[in-house]
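In the lab's daily routine, each protein ends up as an entry in a very long ledger. A line of letters takes care of the sequence, but it says nothing directly about the fold. The fold becomes a row of whole numbers, each drawn from a learned catalogue of backbone shapes. The protein below has been through that process, and both of its lines are reproduced in full:
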Amino acid sequence: MRQVVLDTETTGLDWRNGDRVIEIGCIELLDRSLTGRHYHAYINPERGIDAEAVAVHGITADFLADKPKFAHIVEDFEDFVRDAELVIHNASFDVGFLDHELDRLGRGKLSTLCAGVIDTLRLAKEQNPGKKASLDALCDRYEIDNAHRELHGALLDAELLAEVYLAMTRGQESLMIGLEDEPAARETDADGAPVLRAAVKVLRPDASEQQAHDAVLADIAKANKGLCLWLAPAPEAAG
């Protein structure tokens, strides 16, 4: 199972008002393990950046002036996310912006390019109703170090979100790990020879103990109208 954890930074809050994507960060997961592969790009939005947005991510128009336009990076981006399941925090925001960028170039939407989307914001609210569900809050909840996150950044946030997502969904994985555990190694002595354990001694009940046990079973049978599994007759041997 291939997944891509994705985050974007933008010029503002609404692509419908002409805001554009200025940074994309992606982290690859394969069978719930980080592969070390990532995709990252800064993008020239061909427009100004809202001051409020700069205060969040610190990316200025001057910094992006010599960066490629979305049309120049789109194929590399599509190649990286193609057929993967996307993991995004507040997915409607990033998907809306990316779909708008793709549509501007006459290309298909993410829904035709990728296998699906998991929204970790929605997942967090379902798991912990009424609790904060920002990325910083989730890092605190799952004890993920985000002290180096002074400003938002698409690649950094994708890296943190990947750790958060794995922590949020670790329950089912732990069951699988239990099924796949290797058998414990045999205990050996200092010379490497197997340590032999004494046979377990079986103690049989004496007559009084057996009588007390039978009385308890009789009480159980009486309370359950004769239904007591321990008193069920043994099956007859095949002739």
Remarks:
- The longest strand covers residues 21-30.
- Residues 172-186, 234-239 have pLDDT under 50 and may be disordered.
- The beta strands are 2-10, 21-30, 33-42, 85-88, 116-119.
